[in-house]
Specification:
Number of helices: 10
Number of domains: 1
Helix content: 25-40%
Structural class: alpha/beta
Radius of gyration: 18 Å
Strand content: 15-25%
CATH class: Alpha Beta
CATH topology: Rossmann fold
Shape: globular
Strand order of the largest sheet: 1-2-4-3-5-6-7-8
CATH architecture: 3-Layer(aba) Sandwich
């Protein structure tokens, strides 16, 4: 693991897999998820396919910078958006998080990279492609959406699991992790594996405070519907038909808005990346980046 100090003052924890002589592939993870949510074996498949893989912890997550004490009222933000009122000030936006990833490329001396993001990470890489097009070779948006309220919406009971405050006690945290089975790929659900991953996540970094600020960044940034048709990077959208957290319409709408985008709908994939789908997803990304 390494650490990069960005010009903004944010420090990002990151690591790399593969040869720096290969074209770079920047992986951006989702809401509250640490870089380890891109599994080592999955990253190795991408590296073996000729990509210099870079994964990192987003700000307010994992071992990257924390904005301790900067409280946000996400309900006030959502109320303001619904009523058309000015939004309350938020600590940062998706644009700031996108700039973090670009700053990491600067730190590594990489001019242009392929970018792939999952869930909130998909929103971040979409923002990169919109705001930093000259830095992007190609984009892959995975299990994500456009930010529009009429697509990709989770069922209330699924969303409530995502935003529920996690137990601070380690054993209770691990036990509660099985609640996430509600959005995982039904065909490949494994409660024991989920608990083991939760234990590893807790031991690496337990930081629930960051979730409210990341959620505020998502909500306050609005939708990207007007900007996505201007994306010029070759784009692949991957979405699971079994996704109940960001439903498939989010991915379908993303592909619809981006000119020339390819859409891969995976029948047995939920809002996760199970080991049984590593080869399919990695091969799809490798082929897309090669053709791009």
């Amino acid at each position: 693991m390494s650490r990069a100090l960005l010009q903004s003052g944010i420090e990002l924890e990151y690591d790399t897999i593969g040869s720096p002589d290969d074209e770079a592939l920047l992986l951006v993870m989702g809401f509250t998820a640490q870089l380890t949510a891109w599994p080592d074996d999955f990253c190795k498949l991408l590296a073996d396919a000729g990509r210099f893989v870079i994964r990192y912890d987003n700000r307010d997550c994992g071992l990257s910078s924390k904005l301790d004490g900067q409280l946000v009222d996400t309900m006030a933000i959502m109320t303001a958006m619904a009523s058309g009122q000015p939004l309350p000030t938020v600590p940062y936006s998706l644009s700031d998080m996108a700039a973090d990833g670009i700053g990491l490329l600067d730190h590594l001396g990489i001019e242009r990279a392929h970018i792939a993001g999952a869930s909130m990470g998909g929103m971040i890489v979409q923002t990169m492609a919109i705001e930093h097009p000259h830095r992007v070779r190609s984009m892959v948006s995975i299990m994500s959406t456009t930010g529009e309220s009429h697509v990709g919406q989770a069922a209330p009971e699924v969303l409530s699991v995502l935003i529920a405050p996690p137990p601070a006690d380690r054993e209770a945290y691990i036990a509660s992790s099985v609640n996430s089975l509600v959005w995982q790929s039904k065909k490949y659900q494994d409660a024991e594996r989920t608990k083991n991953e939760a234990a590893a996540n807790f031991d690496r970094m337990f930081y629930p405070e960051g979730s409210s600020r990341q959620l505020a960044a998502i909500v306050s940034s609005g939708d990207r519907a007007a900007a996505l048709p201007g994306v010029t990077a070759p784009t692949l959208v991957i979405h699971g038909r079994d996704d109940t957290l960001i439903t498939p319409s989010g991915g379908m709408r993303t592909a619809e808005l981006i000119p020339g985008a390819n859409l891969l709908l995976v029948a047995d994939m939920g809002h996760d990346l199970p080991e049984q789908l590593f080869a399919l997803v990695a091969a799809s990304i490798a082929t897309h980046t090669r053709l791009a």
